[in-house]
Amino acid sequence: MAPSTTRTLSHLGAFFMDTKTNLYDTIVFDCDSTLVTIEGADELAKKNGVYKKVTELTQRAMNGQLDFNTAFKERWDLIKPTIRDLEWLGEQYINNITLGAKEMVAECMERGIEVFIISGGIKQPCDILGEYLGLPKENVLALNLLFNENGNYIGIQPGQTLLEDNGKARIINKLFNKERTLFVGDGCTDLSVEAFVETFVGFGGNVCRKEVESNAKFYVHSNDLLTILKFI
Which of 32, 60, 119, 174 could in theory staple to 142 by disulfide, Cβ–Cβ 3.0 to 4.6 A? Predict the structure, then answer.
């Protein structure tokens, strides 16, 4: 069930300025800890009883003891999500949506700005969130896992750009006009796109990551995504 809200755009007049020309054609959001308050992999790890092992693996990667791709594969091999798990996570995304996210996306689309999600998370739950926000599936770019005929996890689809170093930046550079693109995200992989967009805004409303806070030209601490409207 979607979370209820009494907030409407009419209540937020200070954010909405009557502009005839948008600064951007495209706005791109990260998913975990940006559009939603949770981290999908952590939620699935808790659900499947492997949270401690997954966090230990993540810490090893952060300490430089494992490269990103090895850590990523081992993490999902531990979690082993089923198709039903991913559907569950999609519902968790909706139930834990960041304050102002739905209104922010609606306002951008009303202004004629195309909205995308680019996530290092998994495609199916991101699609569920995207549908809730009114986005077409082709505007949701995330990672694909492989499943057998029973819906059980068998691995990660190889050859995906998001698995490469600076994968988000590579996608941004290929698909969008740098001068007309705004990117909003909380993590270091999001910060890596800064050179490929006109404006990167670090979002610390759910999790403040010090490296992003210290290095992003623009950074917001508000937990309300409508704050981003001042940039467009």
Answer: 119
